[in-house]
Write a structure and sequence with these properties.
single chain, 314 residues, alpha/beta, TIM Barrel, globular
Length: 314
């Protein structure tokens, strides 16, 4: 059955201890399956890199607004919730050290009793990499090596690893993840390289498309499955998940083509088509900037659409 999640207010004026806690607890009470936190470590005042995840292709959080640390937020929410899954969409790997972030992620998985979904990606903002003194052009290779090391950390007792970027000698890494056989790795990114990374290392391909039809999403996933078979994996081991922005209108809008904008009924009808092409988990980012109105839309969608979407799959 396809699950549905909602993004958390980890950035902007609304970001606070109280709003985070209330948002996660309310999402759990409303019947959402997951909450999602975006990732950003530093915010340059001037960003020339094209942002691929907004309609305007520019980053949507001003640099003078707070942006909480993703892993810290999810660790906090692990103690404030009971059942809802806690997801990262997505953590930028290559400017973090894998031993450090893997320890934090595994700890969150233990403390949440297996509710963490580890969405990972290679990043997109060149200015952020410069601030972190990390190689931007090598970020894909660095990320692949981190994911290779991660498998050793989660499965071996005496870990040795000699790579181009990381080298460890006879170390232990405990505890192992709460979830077995491992903490789920959902590989973000939309292009060919991301699809190949998902096929080789991922439990799911996890793109964020601003504009996408169900058919085009399926085309990309079918390529992931072919790549998985090429590297000797069972294609069924890699699932399809995605994140989609949503703009709800009070009345019916023009028919939805590539962008989820319309009434609750229109958006729910389109989401049924994503269910039909095999999406197993969809993170919804309600795009209205004013947080109280955003929360109202989250509530309205849960009350008017979630029950019908779940009933559709029975």
């Amino acid at each position: 059955m396809t699950k549905f999640g909602v993004f958390l207010p980890v950035s902007g004026r609304a970001a606070s201890r109280q709003t985070l806690m209330q948002a996660a607890q309310r999402a759990e009470a409303l019947g959402y399956d997951s909450v999602w936190a975006a990732d950003r470590l530093v915010m340059p005042w001037k960003i020339d890199t094209t942002y691929p995840y907004s309609k305007e292709a520019t980053f949507i959080v001003p640099p003078d607004r707070p942006f909480f640390d993703t892993l810290t937020c999810l660790a906090f929410l692990a103690g404030c919730t009971e059942r809802i899954q806690l997801g990262m969409s997505v953590m930028v790997m290559p400017y973090r050290h894998p031993l450090h972030w893997a320890k934090i992620a595994t700890t969150i998985d233990q403390l949440s009793t297996g509710r963490l979904i580890l969405g990972v990606g290679v990043g997109w903002m060149e200015e952020e990499f410069a601030a972190m003194n990390a190689p931007f052009k090598e970020r894909g290779k660095v990320s692949d090596e981190q994911l290779t090391l991660l498998q050793r950390l989660w499965t071996e007792e005496h870990i040795n690893f000699h790579g181009a970027y990381y080298r460890v000698e006879d170390i232990a890494f405990n505890p192992k993840p709460y979830q077995k056989p491992r903490l789920p790795i959902w590989v973000g990114g939309e292009g060919m390289h991301a699809q190949r990374r998902a096929a080789r290392y991922g439990d799911a391909w996890f793109p964020y498309f601003v504009r996408i039809t169900p058919r085009r999403l399926l085309d990309g996933f079918e390529n992931v499955r072919r790549e998985a078979q090429t590297v000797g994996r069972n294609p069924d081991e890699v699932k399809l998940a995605c994140c989609l922005p949503v703009e709800l209108t009070s009345a019916d809008a023009p028919p939805i083509e590539e962008y989820l904008k319309g009434s609750v009924k229109q958006v729910a009808e389109r989401l049924r088509q994503f269910i039909d092409v095999g999406a197993t988990h969809i993170g919804l980012q309600f795009m209205i900037p004013h947080y109280p109105e955003r929360q109202e839309q989250i509530e309205r969608f849960a009350e008017e659409a979630l029950p019908a979407l779940k009933a559709y799959q029975r």
